[in-house]
Amino acid sequence: MEWIFGAYTWISQDMTWWQIALFILDYAIKFVAIGWVPENRNPSASTAWLLLILLIPFLGLPLFLLLGSQQITGRRHQVQALAHDLIRERTAHLPDVPDDVPLSDDVVGTFKLSRLLTGMPAVASTEMGIFTTFDDSVRRMVEVIDAAEKSVHVQSYIFALDDKTEPLVQALERAHNRGVEVKVLVDPIGSWKYPGYYKLKKRLNSSKIPWHPMLPISLVKLTWRRLDLRNHRKLIVVDAKTVFMGSQNLIEPGYQLAKNHRSGREWVDTWIELSGDVALAFDAVFAVDWTSEIYDTPEAPEAEQIEAPLDDNAGRNIVQVLPSGPGFTTEPNLRVFNNMIYQAHKRLLVVSPYFVPDESLLMALTSAAYGGVDVQLFVNEKSDQFMVGHAQQSYYHALLEAGVKIFRYPAPRVLHSKYMIIDDQMAMFGSSNLDMRSFGLNYEVTLIAAKGSIVDKLISLTDDYRAASTLLTSEEWEKRPFRQRYLDSVFRLTSALQ
Question: Distance between CA atoms of 147 and 6, rounded to whole angstroms?
Fold first, then answer.
């Protein structure tokens, strides 16, 4: 008691009223934060936010209020919930996987888990091609769009007009002019820093092609939410029969930066073209996002039946669409990815440009390696994002110690493909990185594939990446300079700020 009265006397005698007010406010913020921040938030994110708030309360609290919630509420949440119920209702007659398809219990279990989380069943689909160069992918997209009869739906995190994307925009204009329903969704935060984005907006407006920015931020229109909740999906659906999806943004491979062109820095991506019933599922994902940006309720399409069971055609695959993002409360991609990793018995191939795992994913990968699984992780020698690159490197010691083989793709090119292959029999492929942003902050879309050509072609693609990459050894990594070690540790703290 004497200490308390003594402190009170010191405060009252040596501090002005505004200093006393700041002192009280400082401790009030810290006291409230300790009981408020951890609520319904994973421990690593809670710890990171509390560290920031306790050290710098007058900066940490505003940042937490601005960026601390990863939940989508209001009308967008209602649209997502209604869509989820509609998908379950429309697909209730479909089995988890097509009947009479020989799949292992582990693979079937993954499909069932994914369907439980998102409502999407697995279906048979034909792989029409895997594209690893920008020119080849755009050339094929133009061919399919020029043959479109009913609809062309385009969605991209980054979409900018330049010499490489000009043919695609022209194809969209031709389709629109002949009466095809063309719709375009673009993430404005992902695209705003590229001059071609503003050229694209003018072009779409002048062509009268319907388009919307995804998750726009506007103080004028009073549309405001957490700035870094973004729509990271990349897909094109034509006539609800053909879909292109993958990791490639719709911008030339050098991202319209002169310094990238001078240094030879280009993004290395992969797209897959699929046909069949899976296109309906991707079109449903697009419909939800489109509806979230407008105020009209779309008409529910009639339920479709699977056309045919799997046959001996090498192009046929069993596939499933896995949407994820802030609209889901269960982090479906993280749960399904972990489930797949724990099923690995022989080999696990992981390709991710941004690898910042949460505790569960890191535990799954290292446990697989400790258990004798050949775990191979493909990342970039030099990340294009400073903070993410250092945060990613902070996990290399634990991975190498467990026996994970880390292959680094050589700079200046940026390996941007995103996929994972389990025991050469099942794969995930799409827009999702293996980082906390993709698990909780970004809207992503992933394809799960088994029993067909997709897995085999991704294995072959991984062989090419391995041949071009260098294997990181523990001895080499332990010799890195102190400055790099320090920055890795510092930015590891920021990786959980979601």
Answer: 83
Q: How many residues does the chain have?
A: 498
Looking at the DSSP bridge assignments, the partners of residue 350 are: 377, 420
**DSSP E strand stretches across 139-199:** 151-156, 181-186
Query: In angstroms, rounded to a whole number, what is the distance separating the alpha carbons of residues 77 and 240?
Result: 25
CA distance 379 to 415: 7
Q: What is the mean pLDDT of each run of 10 residues along the chain (498 residues)?
A: 49 63 69 64 66 69 62 66 77 83 91 94 95 97 98 98 98 98 96 96 97 80 64 97 97 96 96 95 94 64 45 71 89 96 97 94 97 98 92 96 98 97 97 92 95 95 98 95 89 67
* Number of other CB atoms surrounding residue 450 within 10 Å: 24
From the list 288, 185, 280, the residue with the least C-alpha distance to 239 is 280
Q: How far apart are CA 123 and CA 102, in angstroms?
A: 13
Q: Give the DSSP letter of residue 441.
A: I
**Is the backbone of residue 179 left (phi > 0), alpha (psi -120 to 50) or beta?**
left
Nearest to 497 by CA among 66, 57, 196: 66
Question: Residue 47: phi, psi to the nearest 5?
Answer: -60, -45
Instruction: Give the Cα separation of 59 and 316 in Å (integer).
Output: 54
Q: Rounded to an integer, what distance in angstroms lies between the CA atom of residue 29 and that of residue 286?
A: 42
